[in-house]
């Protein structure tokens, strides 16, 4: 079974378990009746936000919302967010349903006055999407939840980017896994670190360190010394990034690494902690972002070709925390470490009291039946089943290498994924200037006799097998990962057909 097929199968099993729990049954002692049915312990609430169309090379920053129509609190222990590509990132907040009034779906953020910090303070933060990830699954330990209070909705600020030469469409889907109030043990509050003091020099490897002492801000609002139990951490950066680290600052565990990543790939980068990371006795957190800027331009904080350095965390904490450096002028070069140019900036922190609605379930909720909002759409599958490409599909014209570069390799394999940059996966750089030489000269690392591209023979080309089949196999029957990696769906049929036609024509350098 391929990675995508295995993931879809596992998700189907999980969803099936929840759906069985939600199947209507005669009422029993556990839910207020006398039919003998067991109490419902959890449910999945699903939604499709619809499809967003992007023109060639279009970049947009829409807001997105989903009014849950919930009369009672929802206790979210897991959430799945999936799309069909081109979602650079999205950050999901929980706000009162009368905030940012207007129709759900996609809308103009400025027209409704959306502000991410204001939204988080008014409600809370549910989740964020890793850079370019097509599927993000956030799962907390049993009993640890994000609360969606009554009459609240989800609102996200999103960033969509089509780097291809053709128009594209991408559907966005979400599933919330809620648990019965009787199982809730802890409520999570967000904390955020953000270093905007970036000035990344060209042709240089550099790192930017942010040491954030959280003690004073925390104590001013919470009235007690710093104590946080970190349950989830998710970094955010762009494709020039080659390093990210979060450490404990100060105290007996100073320098202990909480989470670390090397290189960029469009994979989910979040991590959950069970047991939690305890900050009691610590001073705060240190975040370091590293970049290998192989361009001729100085990069700064921003969208497009620029970079970012931030993280979202969720913790058991009596306050919300936001800390960081805001001005590029605050950055200071502090020397070299192992040939890497090191930078630092001062960090300021603020603590905020959570919304009054962010509370543990009442005794009445714990004793009553599970509440499921009417907004659930059972027809939505957050992780659609993969299907093999249609071999009879018509290719794009012309079916040339130039077309493939601008529609598949550059936007979907290098910019959106891991076959680009300074450390391309498997040594295959699909952003290479000599793309033809890279494709035909690549030494395949998989245990197969097939070359990556066999001119005139699509079926004998490993590349075609990986992008056209949900469960590609080598000669010994061993499963291989399909491409794009981690995507619940394969490429559009027309793109796969274009690759096939180019290989059939002898894979010319056109």
Question: In brief, what are we looking at here?
Answer:
The protein has about 500 residues and is α+β, with helices and mostly antiparallel strands. About 15% of the residues lie in helices and about 35% in strands. It has helices at about 5-20, 110, 115-120, 215-220, 365, 400-415, 435-440, 460-470, 495-505, and strands spanning about 40-55, 60, 65, 75-85, 85-95, 105, 125-130, 135-140, 145-150, 150-160, 170-180, 185, 190-195, 200, 205-215, 230-235, 240-250, 255-260, 270-280, 285-295, 300, 310-315, 320-325, 330-335, 340-345, 350.
Description:
- The chain is α+β, with helices and mostly antiparallel strands and 510 residues long.
- It has nine helices and 26 strands.
- The chain has helices spanning 3-22, 109-112, 116-122, 215-222, 363-367, 401-415, 435-441, 462-468, 493-504; strands at 42-54, 59-60, 63-67, 74-83, 87-96, 105-107, 124-128, 135-139, 144-148, 152-161, 168-179, 186-187, 189-195, 199-200, 204-213, 229-236, 241-249, 257-262, 271-278, 284-293, 299-300, 310-316, 320-325, 332-337, 340-346, 348-352.
- The strands form five sheets. Strands 1, 4, 8, 9, 11 and 12 form a six-stranded mixed sheet that branches.
- A hairpin with a 7-residue loop joins strand 17 and strand 18.
- Helix 6 crosses helix 9 (493-504).
- It is globular.
- The protein starts with a helix and ends in a 6-residue tail after the last helix.
């Amino acid at each position: 079974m391929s990675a995508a097929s295995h993931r879809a199968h596992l998700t189907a099993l999980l969803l099936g378990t929840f759906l069985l729990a939600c199947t209507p049954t005669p009422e029993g002692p556990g839910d207020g009746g006398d039919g003998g049915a067991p109490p419902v312990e959890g449910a999945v609430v699903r939604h499709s936000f619809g499809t967003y169309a992007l023109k060639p090379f279009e970049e947009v920053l829409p807001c997105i919302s989903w009014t849950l129509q919930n009369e009672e609190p929802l206790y979210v222990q897991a959430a799945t967010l999936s799309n069909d590509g081109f979602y650079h990132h999205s950050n999901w907040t929980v706000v009162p349903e009368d905030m940012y009034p207007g129709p759900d779906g996609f809308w103009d953020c400025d027209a409704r006055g959306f502000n991410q910090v204001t939204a988080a303070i008014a409600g809370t933060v549910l989740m964020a999407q890793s850079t370019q990830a097509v599927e993000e699954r956030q799962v907390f330990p049993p009993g640890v939840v994000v609360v969606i209070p009554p009459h609240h909705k989800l609102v996200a600020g999103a960033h969509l980017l089509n780097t291809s030469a053709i128009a594209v469409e991408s559907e966005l889907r979400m599933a919330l896994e809620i648990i019965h109030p009787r199982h809730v043990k802890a409520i999570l509050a967000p904390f955020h670190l953000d270093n905007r003091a970036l000035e990344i020099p060209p042709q240089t490897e550099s790192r930017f360190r942010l040491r954030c002492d959280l003690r004073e801000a925390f104590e001013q609002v919470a009235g007690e010394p710093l104590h946080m139990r970190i349950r989830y951490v998710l970094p955010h950066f762009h494709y020039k990034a080659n390093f990210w680290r979060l450490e404990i600052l100060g105290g007996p565990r100073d320098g202990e690494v909480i989470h670390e990543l090397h290189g960029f790939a469009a994979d989910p980068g979040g991590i959950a902690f069970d047991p939690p990371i305890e900050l009691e006795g610590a001073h705060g957190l240190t975040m370091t972002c590293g970049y290998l800027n192989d361009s001729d331009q100085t990069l700064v904080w921003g969208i497009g070709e620029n970079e970012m350095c931030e993280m979202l965390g969720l913790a058991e904490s009596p306050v919300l925390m936001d800390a960081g450096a805001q001005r590029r002028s605050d950055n200071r070069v502090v020397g070299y470490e192992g040939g890497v140019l090191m930078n630092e900036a001062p960090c300021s922190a603020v603590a905020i009291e959570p919304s009054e609605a962010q509370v543990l379930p009442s005794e009445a909720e714990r004793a009553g039946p599970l509440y499921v909002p009417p907004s659930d759409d059972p027809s939505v599958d957050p992780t659609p089943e993969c299907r093999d490409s249609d071999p009879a599909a018509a290719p794009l014209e012309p079916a040339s290498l130039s077309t493939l570069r601008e529609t598949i390799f550059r936007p979907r394999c290098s910019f959106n994924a891991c076959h680009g940059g300074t450390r391309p996966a498997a040594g295959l750089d699909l952003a290479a200037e000599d793309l033809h030489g890279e494709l035909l000269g690549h030494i395949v690392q998989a245990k197969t006799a097939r070359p990556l591209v066999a001119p005139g023979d699509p079926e004998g080309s490993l590349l075609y097998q990986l992008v056209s089949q949900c469960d590609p196999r080598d000669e010994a029957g061993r499963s291989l990962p399909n491409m794009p990696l981690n995507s619940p769906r394969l490429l559009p049929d027309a793109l796969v057909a274009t690759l096939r036609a180019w290989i059939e024509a002898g894979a010319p350098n056109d």
